[in-house]
Amino acid sequence: MYEIIYTNADGVQVSFSARPPFVVISKQGFGSVENTITTEKQYGLDGAILVSEQLDTRDLTIKGEAVGISPQDLDMLRKELIGVLNPKVAGTLTYRAFNNEYSIDVLVVKAPEMDDPIKNITETFTATFLALDPYWQDMSVYNSLIPLAVATKKHHFPLEIVANYEFATLKSGEIVPVENNGDVAVGGTFYITLGAEASDPEIYNVLTQQFFRFKGAYPAGTRFKLVTTRGKKEAIMTTPSGVDSNAMPLRDPNSTFLQLEKGNNYFQVKASSGIGNVIVQLDFQPLVGGI
User: Fold this and answer.
1) Which of 2, 34, 48, 195 can bridge 39 by disulfide, Cβ–Cβ 3.0-4.6 Å?
2) pLDDT tens digits, residue range 125-148?
3) What is the bridge-based pairing of β-strands 175-180 and 223-227?
4) In angstroms, rounded to a whole number, what is the distance separating the alpha carbons of residues 135 and 138?
5) pTM of this structure
6) Structural domains of the chain, with CATH
Protein backbone atom coordinates (compact mmCIF):
# COMPACT_ATOMS: atom_id res chain seq x y z
CA MET A 1 0.00 0.00 0.00
CA TYR A 2 1.41 3.38 -0.98
CA GLU A 3 0.28 6.97 -0.97
CA ILE A 4 1.34 9.89 -3.18
CA ILE A 5 0.72 13.37 -1.79
CA TYR A 6 1.06 16.52 -3.87
CA THR A 7 1.46 19.75 -1.88
CA ASN A 8 1.63 23.05 -3.74
CA ALA A 9 3.52 26.14 -2.63
CA ASP A 10 0.34 27.53 -1.07
CA GLY A 11 0.21 24.56 1.31
CA VAL A 12 -2.84 22.95 -0.32
CA GLN A 13 -2.52 19.22 -0.93
CA VAL A 14 -4.23 16.28 -2.56
CA SER A 15 -3.67 12.59 -1.93
CA PHE A 16 -3.52 9.77 -4.52
CA SER A 17 -3.71 6.16 -3.33
CA ALA A 18 -5.63 2.91 -3.70
CA ARG A 19 -8.57 4.45 -1.85
CA PRO A 20 -11.13 7.01 -3.10
CA PRO A 21 -11.62 9.77 -3.93
CA PHE A 22 -8.45 9.83 -6.10
CA VAL A 23 -7.49 6.26 -6.95
CA VAL A 24 -4.15 5.54 -8.66
CA ILE A 25 -4.42 3.35 -11.74
CA SER A 26 -0.75 3.60 -12.76
CA LYS A 27 2.32 5.78 -12.23
CA GLN A 28 5.43 6.40 -14.30
CA GLY A 29 8.78 8.11 -13.77
CA PHE A 30 9.17 7.25 -10.08
CA GLY A 31 12.06 4.85 -10.67
CA SER A 32 15.40 5.46 -12.36
CA VAL A 33 15.93 8.24 -14.90
CA GLU A 34 17.95 8.35 -18.10
CA ASN A 35 21.67 9.07 -17.88
CA THR A 36 22.67 11.50 -20.63
CA ILE A 37 26.13 10.52 -21.86
CA THR A 38 28.20 12.85 -24.06
CA THR A 39 31.07 11.29 -26.01
CA GLU A 40 33.63 12.41 -28.55
CA LYS A 41 35.05 10.40 -31.43
CA GLN A 42 38.65 10.84 -32.50
CA TYR A 43 40.02 10.14 -35.92
CA GLY A 44 41.64 6.75 -36.24
CA LEU A 45 40.55 5.51 -32.81
CA ASP A 46 37.96 2.85 -32.19
CA GLY A 47 35.04 3.68 -29.95
CA ALA A 48 34.72 7.07 -28.29
CA ILE A 49 36.01 9.14 -25.36
CA LEU A 50 33.73 10.06 -22.49
CA VAL A 51 33.17 13.82 -22.23
CA SER A 52 30.49 14.00 -19.54
CA GLU A 53 27.46 12.27 -18.09
CA GLN A 54 24.53 13.55 -16.09
CA LEU A 55 21.05 12.46 -15.11
CA ASP A 56 18.24 14.01 -17.10
CA THR A 57 15.26 15.79 -15.60
CA ARG A 58 12.53 13.52 -14.23
CA ASP A 59 9.10 13.26 -15.90
CA LEU A 60 6.42 11.89 -13.57
CA THR A 61 2.92 10.81 -14.52
CA ILE A 62 0.02 9.72 -12.35
CA LYS A 63 -2.98 8.14 -14.05
CA GLY A 64 -5.99 7.70 -11.84
CA GLU A 65 -9.70 7.75 -11.34
CA ALA A 66 -11.73 10.25 -9.34
CA VAL A 67 -14.54 8.53 -7.47
CA GLY A 68 -17.49 10.49 -6.11
CA ILE A 69 -20.69 9.55 -4.39
CA SER A 70 -22.80 11.57 -6.82
CA PRO A 71 -22.34 13.59 -10.02
CA GLN A 72 -22.35 16.75 -7.92
CA ASP A 73 -19.63 15.31 -5.64
CA LEU A 74 -17.56 14.30 -8.66
CA ASP A 75 -17.84 17.82 -10.02
CA MET A 76 -16.45 19.17 -6.73
CA LEU A 77 -13.58 16.66 -6.87
CA ARG A 78 -12.78 17.70 -10.44
CA LYS A 79 -12.60 21.36 -9.45
CA GLU A 80 -10.52 20.53 -6.36
CA LEU A 81 -7.97 18.55 -8.38
CA ILE A 82 -7.64 21.20 -11.09
CA GLY A 83 -7.34 23.94 -8.45
CA VAL A 84 -4.59 22.21 -6.44
CA LEU A 85 -2.64 21.18 -9.55
CA ASN A 86 -2.27 24.75 -10.78
CA PRO A 87 0.61 24.90 -13.32
CA LYS A 88 1.44 28.40 -12.11
CA VAL A 89 2.27 27.14 -8.60
CA ALA A 90 5.23 24.85 -7.87
CA GLY A 91 4.90 21.99 -5.43
CA THR A 92 6.29 18.82 -3.89
CA LEU A 93 5.44 15.17 -4.42
CA THR A 94 5.73 12.94 -1.36
CA TYR A 95 5.76 9.16 -1.74
CA ARG A 96 4.99 6.98 1.30
CA ALA A 97 5.24 3.19 1.35
CA PHE A 98 6.27 0.56 3.94
CA ASN A 99 7.17 3.16 6.58
CA ASN A 100 9.46 4.96 4.13
CA GLU A 101 8.95 8.50 2.89
CA TYR A 102 10.51 10.30 -0.07
CA SER A 103 9.90 13.75 -1.52
CA ILE A 104 10.81 15.63 -4.69
CA ASP A 105 10.20 19.20 -5.87
CA VAL A 106 8.14 19.34 -9.05
CA LEU A 107 6.43 21.63 -11.52
CA VAL A 108 2.97 20.84 -12.87
CA VAL A 109 3.29 20.32 -16.62
CA LYS A 110 -0.43 20.13 -17.25
CA ALA A 111 -3.46 20.20 -14.98
CA PRO A 112 -5.70 17.11 -15.24
CA GLU A 113 -8.30 17.10 -17.98
CA MET A 114 -11.67 15.72 -16.85
CA ASP A 115 -15.06 15.84 -18.52
CA ASP A 116 -17.94 17.61 -16.83
CA PRO A 117 -19.87 14.93 -14.95
CA ILE A 118 -23.45 14.49 -16.06
CA LYS A 119 -24.55 11.07 -14.85
CA ASN A 120 -21.23 9.49 -13.96
CA ILE A 121 -19.75 9.27 -10.47
CA THR A 122 -16.24 8.28 -11.69
CA GLU A 123 -13.87 9.93 -14.15
CA THR A 124 -10.32 9.11 -15.22
CA PHE A 125 -7.56 11.73 -15.11
CA THR A 126 -3.86 12.12 -15.89
CA ALA A 127 -1.52 14.43 -13.97
CA THR A 128 1.99 15.12 -15.30
CA PHE A 129 4.92 16.69 -13.43
CA LEU A 130 8.52 17.71 -14.13
CA ALA A 131 11.31 17.52 -11.54
CA LEU A 132 14.32 19.62 -12.53
CA ASP A 133 16.42 17.89 -9.86
CA PRO A 134 15.86 14.16 -10.55
CA TYR A 135 16.80 12.90 -7.08
CA TRP A 136 14.30 11.93 -4.39
CA GLN A 137 15.01 13.08 -0.83
CA ASP A 138 14.89 10.21 1.65
CA MET A 139 12.84 11.63 4.53
CA SER A 140 12.24 8.35 6.35
CA VAL A 141 15.43 8.19 8.44
CA TYR A 142 17.14 11.56 8.58
CA ASN A 143 14.33 13.64 10.03
CA SER A 144 16.15 14.51 13.28
CA LEU A 145 19.22 16.54 14.14
CA ILE A 146 22.58 14.77 14.33
CA PRO A 147 24.81 16.22 17.09
CA LEU A 148 28.39 17.06 16.16
CA ALA A 149 29.00 18.55 19.62
CA VAL A 150 26.67 17.88 22.52
CA ALA A 151 25.87 18.93 26.07
CA THR A 152 26.37 16.08 28.59
CA LYS A 153 24.25 16.20 31.74
CA LYS A 154 26.15 15.54 34.95
CA HIS A 155 23.50 16.11 37.63
CA HIS A 156 21.74 13.20 39.29
CA PHE A 157 18.90 12.93 41.77
CA PRO A 158 18.86 13.28 44.67
CA LEU A 159 20.61 16.56 43.87
CA GLU A 160 23.36 17.85 46.17
CA ILE A 161 24.91 21.21 45.30
CA VAL A 162 28.57 21.54 46.32
CA ALA A 163 31.42 23.89 45.42
CA ASN A 164 32.34 23.88 41.70
CA TYR A 165 29.28 21.73 40.96
CA GLU A 166 28.59 21.22 37.23
CA PHE A 167 25.08 20.62 35.95
CA ALA A 168 26.40 19.74 32.48
CA THR A 169 29.50 19.91 30.34
CA LEU A 170 29.96 20.72 26.65
CA LYS A 171 32.04 18.24 24.67
CA SER A 172 33.30 19.57 21.36
CA GLY A 173 36.29 18.97 19.14
CA GLU A 174 35.93 15.22 18.72
CA ILE A 175 35.74 13.59 15.29
CA VAL A 176 32.13 12.54 14.70
CA PRO A 177 31.17 10.00 11.97
CA VAL A 178 28.07 10.70 9.84
CA GLU A 179 26.85 8.20 7.26
CA ASN A 180 25.18 9.22 4.01
CA ASN A 181 23.50 6.07 2.69
CA GLY A 182 22.04 7.83 -0.34
CA ASP A 183 23.19 7.45 -3.94
CA VAL A 184 25.14 10.73 -4.30
CA ALA A 185 26.80 13.49 -2.31
CA VAL A 186 24.41 15.95 -0.65
CA GLY A 187 24.52 19.18 1.32
CA GLY A 188 22.94 19.76 4.70
CA THR A 189 22.00 22.34 7.31
CA PHE A 190 24.42 23.00 10.17
CA TYR A 191 23.10 24.70 13.31
CA ILE A 192 25.80 26.30 15.47
CA THR A 193 25.02 27.57 18.98
CA LEU A 194 27.49 29.30 21.31
CA GLY A 195 26.98 28.53 25.01
CA ALA A 196 29.64 31.13 25.90
CA GLU A 197 32.02 33.41 24.00
CA ALA A 198 33.98 31.73 21.21
CA SER A 199 36.22 32.82 18.35
CA ASP A 200 36.37 31.55 14.77
CA PRO A 201 33.84 28.67 15.07
CA GLU A 202 34.47 26.13 12.34
CA ILE A 203 33.13 22.88 10.93
CA TYR A 204 35.88 20.70 9.49
CA ASN A 205 35.60 17.71 7.14
CA VAL A 206 38.42 15.38 8.18
CA LEU A 207 38.53 13.33 4.96
CA THR A 208 38.41 16.17 2.42
CA GLN A 209 40.18 18.70 4.70
CA GLN A 210 37.58 21.28 3.69
CA PHE A 211 36.00 23.59 6.24
CA PHE A 212 33.54 26.41 6.79
CA ARG A 213 34.64 29.03 9.32
CA PHE A 214 33.06 32.22 10.69
CA LYS A 215 35.80 34.75 11.45
CA GLY A 216 35.67 36.82 14.62
CA ALA A 217 34.70 36.58 18.29
CA TYR A 218 31.04 36.06 19.19
CA PRO A 219 29.25 36.31 22.55
CA ALA A 220 27.21 33.66 24.33
CA GLY A 221 23.81 33.05 22.75
CA THR A 222 24.97 33.69 19.17
CA ARG A 223 23.61 31.21 16.64
CA PHE A 224 24.53 30.40 13.05
CA LYS A 225 22.55 28.53 10.42
CA LEU A 226 24.65 27.25 7.52
CA VAL A 227 22.84 25.65 4.55
CA THR A 228 25.01 23.85 1.98
CA THR A 229 22.21 22.21 -0.04
CA ARG A 230 22.12 22.76 -3.81
CA GLY A 231 20.02 25.81 -4.72
CA LYS A 232 19.45 26.77 -1.07
CA LYS A 233 22.91 27.82 0.11
CA GLU A 234 22.96 30.51 2.78
CA ALA A 235 24.53 31.53 6.08
CA ILE A 236 22.47 33.32 8.75
CA MET A 237 23.64 34.69 12.09
CA THR A 238 21.21 35.30 14.96
CA THR A 239 22.39 37.61 17.75
CA PRO A 240 21.65 36.90 21.43
CA SER A 241 18.81 39.43 21.17
CA GLY A 242 17.23 37.47 18.26
CA VAL A 243 18.19 39.67 15.30
CA ASP A 244 18.95 37.78 12.06
CA SER A 245 21.50 38.94 9.49
CA ASN A 246 23.40 37.64 6.48
CA ALA A 247 26.51 35.86 7.76
CA MET A 248 28.21 35.39 4.40
CA PRO A 249 30.49 38.45 4.91
CA LEU A 250 31.71 36.83 8.15
CA ARG A 251 32.96 33.64 6.53
CA ASP A 252 36.62 32.84 6.01
CA PRO A 253 37.37 33.41 2.29
CA ASN A 254 38.72 29.85 2.02
CA SER A 255 35.52 28.32 3.37
CA THR A 256 33.68 25.64 1.39
CA PHE A 257 30.00 24.73 1.43
CA LEU A 258 30.53 21.29 2.94
CA GLN A 259 29.00 18.22 1.32
CA LEU A 260 28.34 14.76 2.68
CA GLU A 261 29.86 12.22 0.33
CA LYS A 262 28.21 8.86 -0.24
CA GLY A 263 29.20 6.56 2.62
CA ASN A 264 31.05 7.60 5.78
CA ASN A 265 31.91 11.23 6.52
CA TYR A 266 33.86 12.56 9.49
CA PHE A 267 33.30 16.05 10.91
CA GLN A 268 35.06 17.97 13.65
CA VAL A 269 34.06 21.19 15.40
CA LYS A 270 36.89 23.68 15.82
CA ALA A 271 37.47 27.19 17.20
CA SER A 272 40.55 29.32 17.89
CA SER A 273 39.19 29.86 21.42
CA GLY A 274 36.18 28.63 23.36
CA ILE A 275 35.89 25.29 21.57
CA GLY A 276 34.03 23.85 24.57
CA ASN A 277 31.30 26.46 24.11
CA VAL A 278 30.37 25.51 20.53
CA ILE A 279 27.42 23.16 19.95
CA VAL A 280 26.76 22.00 16.38
CA GLN A 281 23.88 19.94 15.00
CA LEU A 282 23.41 18.68 11.45
CA ASP A 283 20.27 17.94 9.44
CA PHE A 284 20.35 16.40 5.95
CA GLN A 285 18.31 14.17 3.66
CA PRO A 286 20.04 11.53 1.50
CA LEU A 287 19.27 11.60 -2.23
CA VAL A 288 18.24 8.49 -4.14
CA GLY A 289 17.98 8.00 -7.88
CA GLY A 290 14.67 6.17 -7.79
CA ILE A 291 12.05 4.63 -5.54
Assistant:
1) 48
2) 999 999 999 999 998 765 567 888
3) unpaired
4) 9
5) 0.79
6) 2-30+57-134 (2.40.30.210), 146-288 (2.60.120.860)
